[in-house]
Task: structure prediction
Amino acid sequence: MSACYLSVVIPAYNEERRLPETLDTVCAYLATQAYPWEIVVADDGSDDATAVIVARAGQKDERVKLLPLPHRGKGWAVKNGMLAARGEYRFLCDADLSMPIDLLERLLPNGAPSPDIVIGSREALGARRIGEPRRRWLMGRIFNAMTRALATPGIADTQCGFKVFRAAAAETLFGLQTLDGFAFDAEILFLARRRGFSVAEVGIDWHYRPESKVRPIRDGWRTLRDLIIIRYRSLAGRYQR
Result:
């Protein structure tokens, strides 16, 4: 086993309200595990107390680390967090913790060979959506249909914020990532297919959080724009490194 088995990468922008509970919950869960771990909070230029909260958590446990960044978007924060992480496996975890942390074990290998990327899916067998408004569900289906058509055919849920990457996949794919916004997931999975990395989806329980920062109409148009950009950059040879 490497010096660090699991890195939990949490992108954060102005998360002073949700982050304390999330860090407490994740740390408490990881403390019960036998493997070495770390938490990397990639702070996307927050102008609230996010950095202070993470720094205080790091004083209590040095395995909690703050990665301060200038503000550029969630994709930017995830990219830098994944590349700064040291784990053999790197778990992307949204700050709202809408997936119960104990379901992480579904995404990690259990002794058998595992895929390079495992997606915590709201659409796979056994998944449950809890408390999600009908309007939000419908917008999610539209996002997924656009993404499958333009970038990731066969993947049912690219946008769920809980994914595990093997180190080699993370270092290759996030090194190629060009998008800083919400469509970074689609770009990463598009590149994974092109580079021959294996991808699997595992059903999870997903709890709707009313404080979500996703704005369906605004982010829907931005996602469509970015999906077109992915196709253009691929045709233009931008991903050939």
In short: The mean pLDDT is 92. The first strand starts at residue 6 and ends at 12. The beta strands are 6-12, 37-44, 64-69, 89-93, 117-121, 128-130, 162-166, 199-203, 205-207.
